[in-house]
Design a protein that fits this description.
The chain has 120 residues and is an all-beta fold. The protein is built from no helices and 11 strands. The strands form 2 sheets. Strands 2, 4, 5, 6, 9, 10 and 11 form a 7-stranded mixed beta sheet that branches. A 4-stranded antiparallel beta sheet has the order 1-3-8-7, with no helix packed on it.
Length: 120
């Protein structure tokens, strides 16, 4: 099995910063895709940022210029650096990954989420 464990969430004031981490472990040959999603109270889950194994990244318009996704392939870990945080960034943040198993099969895996609260 493959597991994703998020960390780094917490309470921060508007304008502050947080860095989220997502570490993958288990039966992994490689990780092609890693991304961050979030779900705010009363809203649908939305894509925040993605990172491919080839280095391409994509961001939601609402976070462009403020958030940065990065990967440490040696550690099977993806990060989300969040700067200039706004109250509307408050949400449960989920890590998602597309994993290639040692057999060559593909698995889509979700983490349990880490809560980010931006408030005065």
């Amino acid at each position: 099995q493959v597991q994703l464990v998020e960390s780094g969430g917490g309470l921060v004031q508007p304008g502050g910063s947080l860095r989220l981490s997502c570490a993958a472990s288990g039966s992994i040959f490689s990780i092609n895709y890693m991304g961050w999603y979030r779900q705010a109270p009363g809203k649908q889950r939305e894509l925040v940022a993605t990172s491919s194994s080839g280095g391409s990244t994509n961001y939601a318009d609402s976070v462009k210029g403020r958030f940065t996704i990065s990967r440490d392939n040696a550690k099977n870990t993806v990060y989300l650096q969040m700067n200039s945080l706004k109250p509307e960034d408050t949400a449960l943040y989920y890590c998602n990954a597309g994993v290639v198993a040692p057999t060559g099969g593909y698995l889509e895996v979700w983490g349990q989420g880490t809560l980010v609260t931006v408030s005065s």
